[in-house]
Write a structure and sequence with these properties.
With 242 residues, the protein is mainly alpha-helical. 74% of the residues lie in helices and 0% in strands. The protein contains 7 helices and no strands.
Length: 242
């Protein structure tokens, strides 16, 4: 009998994952149709303004994700339950992806608007620092093998790293900056058609984000089950040779 045949059956994904995946796909397609085909071009920027429909939601879900990392890290230190650590790790991975997307889209938008791909603007700089903090968080996890120690150290970084997130959000208010203030704070700055497109894209991004985090958390759980099984098999073999 092969070793694989002795492996216990792995738990299946949560029931909500499949519907969320399809809902995310439909919502994302609907959001792009609304934003790029129905929403009118901006008077000043033309169709370039439509980058906002993906740039802004990606930034929002990234910061939301790092808040979830913060809360999950606190919960782990309080309860010492590794499921909170797995949630924090999965959310950090997805949030890093969306932060990178935010910076890339911002650079594409900034080149024709500001005449430069990158400037050390407070909003851009603090966002880049946020990205580096959580890339470091993931690097720490990859270099620390002992599970409890990895979870404890990662939780500390996840909590302290979140201190930069409010700086990112309020940077356009605290310092003079090229970057405009938050779209939701600009009263009357965007018309109803733009606001609707932004709202639909935001909902779509939230659903996709939740699906990615749920899927990655599930995969992390499967990896933990497999590691536990391998450890048990190694212990069994070592005892058999004694």
């Amino acid at each position: 009998m092969s070793k694989a045949s002795n492996m216990p059956e792995m738990p299946g994904p949560p029931r909500w994952l499949a519907p969320a995946g399809w809902a995310g796909l439909v919502a994302f397609i609907a959001a792009q149709v609304t934003g790029f085909l129905i929403s009118p071009p901006d008077r000043a920027m033309g169709n370039l303004q439509k980058i906002m429909y993906v740039h802004v939601p990606s930034a929002w879900v990234a910061m939301l994700g790092f808040f979830i990392v913060f809360v999950a890290s606190l919960l782990y230190l309080w309860r010492r339950d590794l499921k909170h650590d797995r949630l924090a790790a999965a959310t950090a991975e997805v949030s890093v992806l969306f932060t990178g997307l935010t910076l890339a889209l911002g650079s594409i938008w900034g080149r024709p608007t500001w005449g430069i791909w990158w400037t050390w603007d407070p909003r851009l700089t603090s966002t880049a620092i946020m990205l580096l903090i959580y890339v470091g968080y993931l690097a720490l996890r990859s270099f620390t093998e002992e599970e409890e120690r990895r979870a404890r150290w990662s939780a500390t970084v996840g909590i302290l790293g979140f201190l930069n997130v409010p700086i990112v959000y309020f940077s356009v208010k605290w310092w003079r900056t090229l970057h405009q203030v938050q779209t939701v704070d600009v009263t009357g700055a965007i018309g109803s058609s733009y606001a609707i497109s932004l709202l639909i894209n935001s909902v779509a991004f939230m659903i996709v984000f939740a699906w990615l985090v749920g899927m990655r958390t599930h995969v992390a759980g499967l990896e933990r089950h497999r590691e536990a099984w391998l450890e048990e098999q190694a212990l069994t073999r070592s005892e058999a040779h004694v």
